[in-house]
Specification:
GO molecular function: NAD(P)H dehydrogenase (quinone) activity
EC number: 1.6.5.2
Structural class: alpha/beta
CATH class of the largest domain: Alpha Beta
Helix content: 40-55%
Organism: Phytohabitans maris
Shape: globular
CATH architecture of the largest domain: 3-Layer(aba) Sandwich
CATH superfamily of the largest domain: NAD(P)-binding Rossmann-like Domain
Keywords: Oxidoreductase
Number of helices: 13
Protein name: SDR family oxidoreductase
Number of domains: 2
Radius of gyration: 19 Å
CATH topology of the largest domain: Rossmann fold
């Protein structure tokens, strides 16, 4: 059985390929697709089949998916313009005879008012209409969305947001990658929807307290209005549109839209999800190295 992972040069894609190898899948049975294959030359060196796969260039997708049995379609990163590219990938998968499309979606994509949800809902609908068996991996937030910014938090003594006391069921990319790998090589996942999140949801106030405890530097959570937070993100260098998506997502978090308590993630990976304490410790260790 040949399995394929798109966007393999990204964090989640690369981790999923590694998770497949860790599960004992032969490298020659793994296709790693990327817009720029040269960026995953290290995977090719391991024997993984590296192929060009650009959602916006359908002519690359037929070759990328040739001979593939199961496909992990990782959502693109061009927020707001992703559905046409995803549709190209689904159409190519159908033409290639793929027997399962697993898609990395968003929490409660079919009912949520999360700013990124409409694109994921639309992509899920495209997959459903294709008739190909599917698995929707509705990933909650990556904990790295927070831990990647700890340098600034330590420098300023604050984590900014508009999330109030809302809890987020964030998990590590590695945990989500392990779940994707489990679906690609396992059985019984056809036409299933998994709401995936960490076992221990936390507020941003709790995140700040954990960073303070481990670093010895006082860090507080500063709650802003949605518009204030968007302006702060723009001032930090983010594009205006993306800043408003993030600020709107924080409001959804505040309203409980990113609280996932299904236990699906830990069941798929066969262990508890990585606790926040470990994620913060790893991030601080990277800063210190």
């Amino acid at each position: 059985m040949t399995v394929a992972v798109t966007a393999a040069s990204g964090h989640l894609g690369r981790l999923t390929v590694r998770a497949l190898l860790d599960r004992g899948v032969p490298a020659g049975d793994i296709v790693a697709g990327a817009r720029s294959p040269e960026k995953i030359a290290d995977l090719a060196a391991l024997g993984v089949l590296v192929r060009e796969a650009d959602y916006d260039r359908p002519e690359t997708l037929a070759g990328a998916f040739a001979g593939v049995d199961r496909l992990l379609l990782i959502s693109g990163n061009a927020v707001g313009t992703r559905v046409p590219g995803h549709t190209n990938a689904v159409n190519a998968a159908v033409a290639a005879g793929v027997s399962l499309i697993a898609y990395t979606s968003a929490s409660y994509a079919d009912t949520s008012d999360l700013p990124v949800a409409p694109e994921h809902k639309a992509t899920e609908e495209v997959i459903l209409a294709s008739g190909v068996p599917f698995t929707f991996l509705r990933n909650c937030w990556y904990v790295e969305n927070y831990t990647a910014n700890l340098a600034a938090a330590l420098r300023h003594g604050a984590i900014l947001g508009a999330a109030g006391d809302g809890k987020v069921s964030a998990a590590t990319r590695a945990d989500f990658a392990a779940a994707a790998a489990a679906v690609l090589v396992g059985e019984g996942h056809d036409n299933k929807v998994y709401e995936l999140g960490g076992d221990q949801p936390f507020t941003l106030t709790e995140l700040a307290a954990e960073v303070s405890r481990q670093s010895g530097t006082e860090v507080v959570y500063r709650d802003l209005s949605q518009e204030e937070y968007a302006r702060a993100l723009v001032a930090a260098g983010l594009p205006d549109g993306y800043a408003h998506v993030l600020a709107g997502s924080d409001v959804s978090l505040k309203e409980g839209k990113l609280l996932v308590e299904t236990g699906d993630l830990s069941r798929l990976i066969g262990r508890p999800t990585t606790p926040l304490t470990e994620s913060v410790a790893a991030a601080l260790a990277r800063l210190a190295s």
